[in-house]
Amino acid sequence: MKIGIVCYPTFGGSGVVATELGKALTKVGHQVHFITYSQPQRLDFFNENLYYHEVNIPAYPLFQYPPYESALSSEMVHVAKYMKLDLLHVHYAIPHASSAYLAKQILATQGIHIPVITTLHGTDITLVGKDSSYEPVVTFSINQSDGITAVSEFLKSDTYRHFAVTKDIEVIPNFIDLERFKRQKKDHFKLAICPNGEKLVVHTSNFRKVKRIDDVIMIFHKLRQQVPSKLLLVGDGPDRARIEKLCMELELYPDVRFLGKLDAIEEVLSVADLFLMPSESESFGLAALEALACEVPLITTNVGGLPELNLQGVTGFLSNLGDVEDMVKNAVTILKDENLPVFKENALARAKEFDITRILPMYEKYYERVLEES
Ligand code: GMT
């Protein structure tokens, strides 16, 4: 198949999933055309089946807000027409689904039929999409898609709850490449960070409010009073400066380190003993799956799609939102020497259920179905 993939090219989960999916599709022989406003972060390899088309957004003094959606639709039209695409697969509803709808209508006037599949990732539904500034367009463009997928059962239900969506939504969970995300031997790294055998706790995110980094810090603050430990924070975002200040006030330095945006997250996860995700909302929790693949047990909230990934008492523990005391208690349980190896083993076993080689065929089958039906 010749597939056009539209996504955000940033470090965010939806962009990562879209890029990894596209890469995997090229490896099994499909031709994939990425259409984005800059090179996706994870698009770091060359393959004869892979193409990258950059959306050109010309500046003009009149434009306080450059019309990105129009430029994106135009690029989709060009690529679909000249590269003879079979389908467009857009990740994240806003504005990709509505731009794809417009491209599809334009192509139809030229006698070209192209089905559109929209994958919902989370914040496009749970946070941003619900806002009345976007809701009518999101509802319309989801209903106009030829196929709709969601990354968890929770997200599927939440979409039906908040939007007047009349079409079937197929749940295809996120996936992990176990060739890349696996525990590597990095003893020197572990020793450098934890010279006295401390336990290593990790959090990775985009440092937005929804991630509740204050809870990460409070969990660690209380945990280190019971278990000697260190905390590594990976990523960057709006809350970072405030959180750094909080760490100073709580006198957590030098036991806390901010590593910023890192490509090789698997190297950090390879030395971790525990991963914290106390999010307020999480449609899937891809970062937690990356941790599981590197044999790192989880402390998460029980919100959104997290119970579909983190198994209570098996791969870690789930607590009510904001229940820092419970998360600390559970963290202490996991980190006990007699428990940690079991949780680590369970983490890897669970990650294997989301191996890309299992999930990729679900997308391929779904593409075939949509092509047949549309
Ligand atoms: O987590 C974020 O804020 C980024 C966001 C995105 O859209 O890139 O992630 C969402 O999509 C990921 C990939 O499907 C999911 O793993 C994340 O759980 C989801 N984030 C939220 O629902 C908050």
TrEMBL record:
GO MF annotation, one:
glycosyltransferase activity
| Domain of life according to the entry | Bacteria
The stretch of residues making up the signal peptide is: none
Ranges for domain Glycosyltransferase subfamily 4-like N-terminal: 11-180
Q: What NCBIfam families does the database record attribute to this sequence?
A: thiol_BshA
Domain Glycosyl transferase family residue range list: 195-341
Any single Pfam family the record assigns to this protein: Glyco_transf_4
- Organism listed in the record: Persicitalea jodogahamensis
* Gene3D superfamilies assigned to the protein according to its UniProt record, in alphabetical order: Glycogen Phosphorylase B
What is the name listed in the Swiss-Prot or TrEMBL entry for this protein? N-acetyl-alpha-D-glucosaminyl L-malate synthase BshA
Taxonomic lineage of the native organism: Bacteria, Pseudomonadati, Bacteroidota, Cytophagia, Cytophagales
Kindly state a single biological-process term from the GO annotations of this entry.
Answer: bacillithiol biosynthetic process
